[in-house]
Amino acid sequence: MRILLVRLRQIGDVVFTTPAVRALRQRFADAHISYVVEPAAAPIVAHNANIDEVIVAPRRQGLRGLRAEVALVRRLRRSPYDLAIDFHGGPRASLLTWLSGAPMRVGYDVPGRGWMYTRRVQRPRSLRARHSVLNQWDLLAPFDIPPPDPGATAVEMPADREAVACVERRLAGAGVGPDERLIVLHVSAGNPFRRWPIASFAAVAAELAAVDRRHRVVMTSGPSEADAASRVISEARALLSEADRSRVLTCGEFSLAEVRALVDRAALYIGGDSGPLHVAATTHVPIVGLYGPTLPARSAPWRAQVWPAEAVETLGLACRPCDQRSCAPGDFRCLTWIRPQQVVDAAIRALGKVDNL
Hints:
There is one protein chain. With 357 residues, the protein is α/β, with parallel strands linked by helices. It contains 13 helices and eleven strands. The protein has two domains: 2-143, Rossmann fold, CATH 3.40.50; 161-355, 3-Layer(aba) Sandwich (Rossmann fold). The protein has helices at 11-27, 42-45, 62-78, 91-99, 132-137, 161-173, 198-211, 226-239, 256-265, 275-280, 296-299, 333-336, 340-355; strands spanning 2-6, 32-37, 53-56, 83-86, 104-108, 119-121, 181-186, 215-220, 268-272, 287-291, 309-313. The chain has a six-stranded parallel beta sheet, with helices on one face. The protein has a five-stranded parallel beta sheet with strand order 8-7-9-10-11, with helices on both faces. Helix 7 (198-211) packs across helix 13.
């Protein structure tokens, strides 16, 4: 049996499919499973033992893009699939699922595109306080697979050996010893609705660097926001005494695979509801998540509850959650109203919980 999976776009959304991928492997042990992803999310599944083939679908414009898309469809048609599952539901993903030629095609019953599937699963159009892993799992309904459990079907992203070695060298070069506690702050996000202010991150970094001599704070960011990480480092150091400034590290940029390796080495991860937070959830590191327009009920770490995870959010806002297209109040208050001290308190709680494990 040959199975094609499609999940384009966001890193976190691909992470959320990994429990379903594991379930499909257990249900169809001898199947050949291919997964179509876009380049940014490819590292999530590159070393997943439940996947036989990762097909990267670049996003290109113009004639080059059209040629690449035709080549991709031809590749899918040359490998006749028995089953195709569209975990995305967007226009491009549904079209690729249909053009794969698989006789059984499963997807969400999206207006205008549901006809491309032979088995359609209902998906409410309104935002629900229901975890994204469960929403993806709905597509497994035709295969009599039991409901998921975070302890048994956690999200996963196997570490890349080369990335692990690279991170170890960089930490050693920054003077991070084995007895020091590394705290990772991810300071960027894909849109302004999930981007906490730089000054707030700097305040948290400074406080955590000062509160314990063992703490070493390192910043990560998206590829286009290295400047934000540099500004957080500078502002945090300015808040510290000269003796404490070296605990806020300068380590440069990290690839997604390196972020995964870095978090494995960390004592704590802090960041907004974006892809790297969900990469962190594939480890056992304590997590502090900052939730603005999104809800922890939809995107909290999906893993065994023994591993600490703290959610920091602004409660009582009528405009939350939202579709992240426009901010009704205009000030992104769901995120900007989160105070640094709330995050520091959550960090201390999370570190205390792991000390007691």
